[in-house]
Design a protein that fits this description.
Blueprint (H helix, E strand, L loop, with lengths): L5 E4 L6 E2 L1 H14 L7 H5 L6 H8 L7 H14 L6 E2 L3 H10 L3 E9 H10 L8 E5 L10 H10 L6 E5 L2 H10 L2 E5 L13 E3 L2 H6 L2
Parallel strand pairs: 1-4, 1-6, 4-5, 6-7, 7-8
Antiparallel strand pairs: 2-3
Helix pairs in contact: 1-4, 3-4
Length: 211
């Protein structure tokens, strides 16, 4: 095989389809404030820049305090984060194969750390990742490159041997700013924006084929 790579994955929209559970928690929070529900597709479009911005976007046009709304939304989501969330097709088998080939796997996500760990453990894949950096556990969110650089330093991998896989410009920009290669997956929630990934894949099977 080729030399081992460090492969850093985004979570929502890349490894997991969490749209329905995220939308349900946001809409339950809105219901608490006597607001009508938003369509799942609308809420999904708000995902990718961390939970604070997700809630802020979901409350735009209202006078509701975001911190208060976060205090309502967070426990709701933690309690229901795996009700309907699934791994995307091929993710479980693909991650296992990459691990067995000797590649080093990690996660860098803007999702809150507690929910991130709960979901990864639920699907039995938490121990496959040497590092999991998430919102609240790390002071800076993507598209800042700090998560990527921290993981590289932790495992001792160079930029030429590091890849970031994600569904949003935040992933691609963090990769570019860290000086590493990137893969954009089209099946997720986000858009590449102005970023130009090293590769574009339409399924997790195609991601596997890059290594």
């Amino acid at each position: 095989m080729n030399s081992p790579k460090l492969i850093i994955f985004d979570l929502d929209g890349t490894l997991i389809d969490s749209a329905r559970d995220l939308a349900a928690a946001v809409n339950e929070m809105r219901r608490h404030f006597s607001l009508p529900p938003l369509p799942v597709a609308t809420i999904t479009g708000y995902v990718g820049n961390g939970v604070r911005l997700l809630v802020t976007r979901a409350l735009q046009g209202t006078p509701i305090n975001v911190d208060e709304a976060l205090r309502i939304q967070a426990p709701i989501y933690r309690a229901h984060s795996v009700d309907e969330t699934t791994l995307y097709p091929g993710v479980y088998e693909g991650l296992r194969e990459l691990r067995d080939q000797g590649h080093i796997l990690a996660v860098a996500t803007n999702k809150p750390a507690e929910a991130c760990d709960l979901i990864l453990k639920h699907f039995g894949i938490r121990d496959w990742f040497v590092s999991v950096l998430a919102g609240g556990r790390f002071p800076v969110l993507k598209p800042e490159p700090d998560m990527i650089l921290d993981i590289m330093a932790t495992v001792g991998m160079k930029p030429d041997d590091t890849w970031v896989v994600g569904d949003n410009y935040t992933d691609l920009e963090s990769a570019r700013r860290a000086g590493v290669r990137s893969i954009f997956v089209t099946y997720g929630y986000g858009e590449p924006g102005k970023e130009k990934p090293t590769s574009t894949c339409h399924s997790f099977g195609e991601v596997l084929g890059q290594f």
